[in-house]
Amino acid sequence: MVRARLPVKWPWLVLGALLAVASQIAWLMEHGWAEALPRLIAGLAAGALLLGPFLAWVLPRLRRRLGPPAARLAWQLSGLETRGGRKAWLISLLALCLASGGGMYWWWYRPNQGAEKIRQLFLAHAEQTSSGLSTLLYQGLEMTGPALDLGVQRDWRMPALEDLPGEERRNFVVRWLGVLTVPADGRYGFGGAVDDGLIILVDGRQAAADWHEGPPRQVWGALALEAGAHALEIRYRQFHGGASLHLSWQPPGLERGPLPLERLKPLKPDPPLAEMTGLRLRYGLMPEPVPIYPPYLGGRFWRLPWYALQ
Amino acid sequence: MAIIRASLRSWLLLLTGLVILTGLAWWQAWDARRAVLEYASAHVQTGKRGMGVWLYDNPFQTGEARFFTKPPPNLHKDRLPPPEPGHLPAKQRPYPFAWRWIGFINAPAQGQYLLGVFAPEGIRLYVDGREAIERWEAKSPRDEMALLKLEPGPHLIDLANVQREHRLELTLFWAPPGARDRELIPIDLATPLAATASPPRLDVMYQALLRWRALLWLLPLAWLGLWLLALRNPQRTRRLLKEHRWFLAILGLAALLRLAWGATVHGISGESAFFAWRAELVLQGAWPFQGMNTRVGPFWDYVLTLPTVLFGPTAWGLRAMAAAMNLLAMVFAYRVLLREAGKPTALAAALMLAALPALVMFSRMPVEFMALGPLLFFAGLDLFSLARRKPPLAVLGGVLWGLGMFNHSVFVVFPATLGLAALAVSRLKVLKSPIPWGAALGFGLAMLPRLWDRLSHPEVQDDLSFLDPARLRELGGFVMSYLKALDGELVYQLFTGQLLIFTWWVIPAVLAAAALLLVWGLIFRRDDGSWLEAALIIALVAYLLMAPLGAPTANPRYFAYALILTALILGRAWARSWQWSPPAIRKGVLAGLLAFSCFCLASLGVNYFYAHLATGGLPLAWNDPLLDHTSDAWMNHDLLARELAKRGYPVVATADYWHHTLHLALNLYQGRPLKFQAVSWASRSHTERAAVFYNSPEGRRIMREFIDGHKPKEFRQSPLPPSLANKYILLERVGPEVEHPSDLDGVW
């Protein structure tokens, strides 16, 4: 039996085909997938029959011609051939390690440390014998005390009209605080439908946030959590007009559903709210304030002063 | 293995200097803080409770303020819908305003305090003269908080804030140690300042405190740098100073010209003021690329933070930094020419770089490519030269050139022309050296941030492309502008409308002779050094040909690198003529060089003094269509600033064109504290009492747009003194009046 030998080795054909298919996928992602099948087939064939052999011819030649000079050039430019150059590399790597370590401390370790402290603070003040969330009402948008303690709530209802400033459903903030126990490690979603503003904090970290004034809308976010107890804080803000809040969560692998009461523990009366805020500030857990009227995002001209150039 | 070798005496000198300077800065900072508290204590309203409030009728804290004493703020007013057209209900404020709340707050205990403000727009909170919150930005109401360690006793609280039209929202809160929640500051703990206190005076004192806090680490660093460069080995330093004394003399001449001459001509580029303003933003915490015109990189802004943090934004600070960059550029130019071409070329070229009128003239424009650009260029060349023995330095040189390109797209042509010249002169053999490859690698690395920025924000790309092949028709005009710029003739022409015919051709003629000499040398006296003149001539010709493609107009500053190349060609030609001359006439050649240098200095003097004598220092309006008619480097912004301050407008709108920002230049000329705030004409704060426009076709077009955007007969033209009338048009507001906010009644 005569075995046919390909003029080009098969890895080159595969490489050519893959590159051609990749270019077609990039085109389809930009222009839509209506012509996907013929394009992909044509790409596969063209890549294998044309591009692959071309690469098989040109790349080894380039390597023979340019390889040694490129290697020599890289060696010269790296500076490793001199003692001073090697010292410079060592110092640079050391500086890089220090900078990376500093960065990791500042953006990862420090916030994690803060989250853990907040979690411990909430656990130390948790009411073990009941379920629900402690509820505080601020009469005004600025969340400055003293807050009215509405006790432990077990459903998400608006404060009673007589508790609100001027007995009107406007310009108030509600804060729900407690401890949430999650059953397993994983990514948990939090959020819901809200009018006007909603912030959900887990261990002091922002899980979901949309604090601006607006019509009813969905607000959603997710955080990776370990199994066990976590500090939970939900803030709701009402400006004027419609007022509504429907909270949900989504454990890993499950559908969205209401927050289960049995997993929530309130805090004891008079929790140390200022200390909680202080911890978030100190450990970098406080995100940038978001505007509540347009333009909602700071955009690229975020730090410009009042009535700036653009 | 010692990292730094030095004698014990040198180490002691270093340590002594560090201790003394650190101690000095620390003591001055302490004293500045004490001065703030002393001033505030001298103006306190004893026996009263609350905070002093200075209420301005504009968002910029300029002009007369009304004074009140009020409890610590907890003010809210619902946001009201905008009024119907033609109907303005009572107590609806149609414009924003600013206020300052200043007083002493008595901290009851030692510990960590949470201090915060809930307010919109700009928020600045100073505690005992130090900034606790610095968020001067346009944003809706939000919490801004700070944690501070305070001792028991009184502490000065200074809160500055802006409020938008139709809305009112300001709360100052705190959480002392042990507090359960954040709370309003009790009025019993607050003591107001009196109306005799001056918030602008306090701002000046805060700047002094900030200055010494910055010097606390800047002075020791500067001492360390001085020690490493010069004091570590005094004998070596003395030897070097003696060996290069002529260069130092030339450097001194350059310093004198750049600082003294630069200050004698009116005007500073609005573009330069743009960088000074951005330096302020950087100090307030702006990120490198935010607010950045994608055309311009952030590096000059960062360089300018140094004088800004020390002295505040000032015109002379800008000029001093530009002069410093220019002088450093000359040092690197000297180094590289000394190494590559010998001492005669290095000295002659340094003298030309110092004295060529065009370079002196444009060094007074502290924009990035006139100041930082030449420094990066020559530092890069120095590194390429050193890379002959240490190839990795070529990468660093490429990075510096990439940073230069980052700063201005005009730089695009520059590496291209030098690269072309190197390829042509070496007949592609330069590609065998690792230097161009290292340079290209470094260049690419330096461009990566800008590339990333452009790719990630495609929606805010400016129309960067000046490339317009049609402008090649104007090549003759471009070359003429370049020739006229060489001896600073443009200054004279600006003032008198004419060229000083009998002198302006001299420097171009000398340049032509120099080029001919070098070409003759290339043909008949070729040696190992001939590559330098070949490269310089090819680069200059290529640059002049490419300039119309890349520059939007024939504004002479776009010829910055052509002028540098010209100086190098002149220097090289003088050195070669000295080298090729018989010894008997070398003194004559040297005398010729000195005479030419004197002619350059005289040309500067003629262009300034004679022009001023003839015209009283008042430049004419632009008439040349090739020149950028709104290039405000030659305007009378300082005179205009003085005139506007004299008239007492708190807020002035100004015409702006692109980044030639007149309002920033006017604010820069005033120094701090501002007597009036100049704002962009498009800002429409509605608190402007006047508006200024260029007296040019572009300026008049913007003025018509401005007038159309206001009510009929809201502004009328007001006469300006003759020294300003040919350049500017002034409009004054005649109505409606801008009042202090009256909708606070009943709220506070």
Q: Which class best fits the helix and strand makeup of chain B?
A: alpha+beta
Averaged pLDDT of chain A: 86
Content of β-strand of chain B: 5-15%
- What is the average per-residue confidence, as pLDDT of chain B, rounded to a whole number? 84
- What top-tier CATH class of the largest domain in chain A fits best? Mainly Beta
Largest sheet of chain B: 7 strands, antiparallel
What does this structure look like?
The complex is a heterodimer of chains A (310) and B (748). Chain A is α+β, with helices and mostly antiparallel strands and 310 residues long. Helices cover 38% and strands 24% of the residues of chain A. Chain A folds into 2 domains: 10-77, no CATH class; 122-289, Jelly Rolls, CATH 2.60.120. In chain A, the strands form 2 sheets. In chain A, strands 1, 2, 3, 5, 6, 8 and 10 form a 7-stranded antiparallel sheet that branches. A 3-stranded antiparallel sheet of chain A has the order 7-4-9, with no helix packed on it. In chain A, strand 5 (197-202) and strand 6 (205-210) form a beta hairpin. Chain B has 748 residues and is an alpha+beta fold. In chain B, helix 8 crosses helix 19 (560-580) and helix 17 packs across helix 19. Chain B folds into 4 domains: 10-42 and 213-243, no CATH class; 44-80 and 90-196, Alpha-Beta Complex (Toxin - Anthrax Protective Antigen, domain 1), CATH 3.90.182.10; 244-451 and 474-614, no CATH class; 635-733. Chain B is globular and about 90 Å long. Residues 625-633 of chain B have low confidence and may be disordered. In chain B, strands 1, 2, 4, 6, 7, 9 and 12 form a 7-stranded antiparallel sheet that branches. The chains are: A alpha+beta (310), B alpha+beta (748).
